Structures are given as C-alpha cells and as structure tokens.
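hi support,

uploading two proteins for the ticket. first:
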Amino acid sequence: MDLDKHFVKYEAIVSMIDQVFDRVKKEFPKEVFCREKCSDCCYAIFDLTLIEALYLNHKFNEKFSGNEKANLLAIADKTDRALVKMKREAYKKVREGADQIEIVGKMSQERVRCPLLGENNLCLMYEYRPITCRVYGIPTSTAGASHICGRTNFVQGKAYPTLNMDKIYTQLQLLSAELVKDINSTNIRMHELLIPVSMAMVTLFNDEFLGVKKDG
C-alpha cells in the first residue's frame, strides 16, 4: 500500500502544530518548561488515531532494524501488555458501577514509560513523535477541560492561548477516514481505532489487519 499522500497530509497538520507550539513558547518563554531530557510527557498514557499509528509504525520500521529493533519491540510488547491489563481493570470497575469520568481521570494520572524513551532520557524518534507529545508543554483543552503540564510555569485559572485538541483530533479522524476509504477497507469504522504507541510499534499493519479487499 502506498500511503505517502496521506502521510503528507498528516505532516502538514504536524507542521501547523509545531508552529503553534513555537509561537506560544516565544510568547511565554518563562512559562514553557520544555527542554532536552525533560521526559515528563514520556510517561503519559494516551492513544493515537489510525493515521498517527500507521505513520509512527512506518517511520519506526524505516529507522530501526536487527537487534536494536528487536529489543525495542520487546520493550513495546511488555509495555502494551501492562496497558491492556490497566485498561481491562478500569473497564471492569466501570462495569461494576464506578464513575467513568473519575476512572478516566485516574487513568490519566498513571505513569507508564514510553518504549521509545531511550536510556539517555531522549526520544528515539523525536522527529516523528506523535502530536500529543508535541503539544504537551503548552495549554490545551479537550471536551471543555483545560490541561497544562505539571512542570510548566503556567498558572492554573489564568487566561492563556489554549490549543483546542478536539479540533485537532477531528482533523486526524477525518484523515484516517479518508485513508480507510482510499484503501477500500471492509472495516468502514476502522478510522475510529485508538492505538497506544506500544501497539503501533508491534502491530503488523498489513492488508489483513486493515481489511483491504482483494481483487476478485
């Protein structure tokens, strides 16, 4: 499958996000804490949209091979199993009557080391890191709730330029939907998939996984 045209569109969104981050950092240099080897965001739990997962997987397979790749995949597999267990327990609590918003809030406070965080506390795929990683140090909002990195100097309750992540996620979902339609997938809802970084690394995104129709 040739997904280059979809990746180009994704990279355009990434470029726009980087410009927003740079603008906020320039306007609030004392508030934005982001610097080399600050890995606070590398322990956050979040999922990728389909287009992000495919892009990260593609770049990972381009960059790594041999024993280095095998070792990273082993770490990613271990991380993924831990996340599955964590999510299964959260789902069980919701089924038992726990407040879903409260459970999601607790999940967001969990700390799991990203399999792409190197021993030197630097991202092994920094140039191809997901959008969530790129915006972590500036004020963002999702579903009307604001979020700031715990290490920034932004003051809670004070007004700052805030990136609406709901709009970004909508763009990514639409791009994913366009990709699913373009590859003629039998799974028309595949664009709704949310995939952790660890799973994006270990998954074989072949025709069978993506539900690509075979000729004839």
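and the second one:
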Amino acid sequence: MSVLDLVRPEILALQPYSSARAEAGQAMVMLNANEAPWPPPGVQPETRGIPLNRYPDPQPRDLIARLAALYAVDPARILVGRGSDEAIDLLVRAFCRPGVDAIALSPPTFGMYAVCAATQGAARIEIPLGADFSIDAKALLDGLERSVKIVFLCSPNNPTGGEIGLAVIERITHALRDRALVIVDEAYIEFADLPSASSLLDAHENLGILRTLSKAWALAGARIGCLIARAEVVSVLRRIMPPYPLPTPSVMAAMAALTAEGMDLTRRRIALVIAERERMAIELARLPGVLEVLPSSANFLCVRFADAALVYRELVANGVIVRDVGRYPRLAGFLRISIGTREENSRLLEVLIRRVVSA
C-alpha cells in the first residue's frame, strides 16, 4: 500500500494553481506576475536590495537546502511554510474527508491539532496520556477507530514537556502502516536529549515530522516551519498550499540564522536554556505552594500550584506573564512557565518568594 492511498481522492485529482514565479523563476525583465516594477515607498536604505515588489519563491531552494543539511534529510522531503501550524492544517485538509475521517491525539497536547480537525469537519479521537503524562502505545493503538487518517504525536509534548522514545514511535508507525499517517511534532526537540524521528523515514512511508525555527532558533516572528515526509506527501500538500507562503524578509531572516555563525550561537543559547530549565525546576520545587514540577525536555516547565489563580494574578501584577494551562485535561492548577534569560527567570522566582510565598 502506498501512502498516497490515504490521501483524499479529490485532492489527488485536483489541478493545482500554477503561480507565475513557479512557472518562470527570475529574469532581467519580469513582466509575468502583475507586480509593480519599482520598490515600495518608504523603503529604508538597508532594505533596498530586498525585492519586496516581487513575489517570493514558493519553496525557496536555498532555504530548503540549509534545512535539509540541518535536519540531515533529502531536500525533496521538505515542505516549508508558515510555522508548523500551516503544515498541520494542510495535512488534515489533504488526508481527512469532512464528516468521514478523523485524527487521533493524546491530550493534554498542542491545541492546533484539534482546531485544524474541527475546521476541516474531521472527527477527533482522543486517547489520553498515561498517569505519568507519557504515551501508552498499546492504549493508543487499541483506542483508534478505522476512520483515523492521521495520528499526531508531540515530542517533547506541549504543554507537559515529556518525550516519546523512537521505539514507541516506530511501534505505532509500523502498526498503522496501511491505515494512517503518523505525524511527530518535534517543535521542541532541540532542547531534548532525544534523536529525531526523521531517522525512521526510510523505513516508514506513513511517517512525517514537523520542525520549526520558532523556538530554538528565535524566529517566532518570522513564522518558518516545515514538514519532513516522503516526497509524494510533500507533492500532495503543495497542490493545496497557497502560492506564496513565505514572505521574503522571513526567508532572509532564516537564512541569516542558519549560517555557521548563527548555528554556533544557537547551540550556545540552547545550552543556556537547558541549564536554566534545570535550575528553575530545582528552585520552583523548593517553594511552598508548589505541588509538582513535571519533568521537561522542552524550553518550559509545567508547574502545579496549590493556588494557581493567585500565583498567576501576582505574577501579572508584577510584570511577569506565564501561561495558565488549567483548561487542558488533567492540568487543573498548572501554569506553564517558559524559560527566559537568567535575569527573567530570577525575577519570576523573586515575585513568587516575595508576594506569593509570604502571603
């Protein structure tokens, strides 16, 4: 069975939009895309060399080459888009028929899987994480219905921070080889001592991996993410993707970050985040009123407080914002705390000690 057998037939039959840039590329005289022939007004001197009056490459070759080198995969297996959110949406639209097919997820987990399914009219099958917030492969596989076309696994998981081992991912992917696509969201993997599931791609054509430059690479505002999958899946998603997903300044920012100097700086920053994560886990666990600090392989900690509402209010009143994740299943009383600079993290601890613990 081919992975293409899982795709909606009408998507396979779709005649995709053919953009002017994809058809003809660049030339000295560009008269094929109804663009303005001059730069936009108000352009600053430092950006005059950026062709903002021209549509960007739909899938920038140089950026894909650098991502392929970074992730050690074939460039043909990469689809770049606006963060990994866009890839999630495209996958659900390509593989799930409205009112017929479903996705599977293990809450508490990233909320966009469910949002994209609801937008598409696809059902949602939920197989909760185990008591320790880990994936139970047997329970997940036993809980799937035949209608499931995509299984989303988040590793490290957002918002709990737990990871999924390669053996578990491979077991699930192999079991679903003729039934469903398995998508592993690795948005936070740079902060984990964990190999990427991309090493399993050659053996499992129903596997896909989501990666992003938003977290470790400090490019959340640029919105650059990608799906790594079989070239056939990438080709299908390009059929339904908007013609020009990536703004030119975003691509240039990503290219600058993915230089040798940028990679070296990012590696050092990741080490700082990991060190601060471990420090914060120890310091928070010592505080009265802190009931639990979940183990985390991401750039955040999920912390349960005796009075999370009070803690949240006091932090906001003192200029510190964290994320209340109490609405997620089994996370009542939890706050998710991103790891900032050492100074920012110390400021949070100071507020907790001075305003909350002493109250």
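thanks. also noticed: Residues 262-357 form a domain with the Aspartate Aminotransferase, domain 1 fold (CATH 3.90.1150.10).
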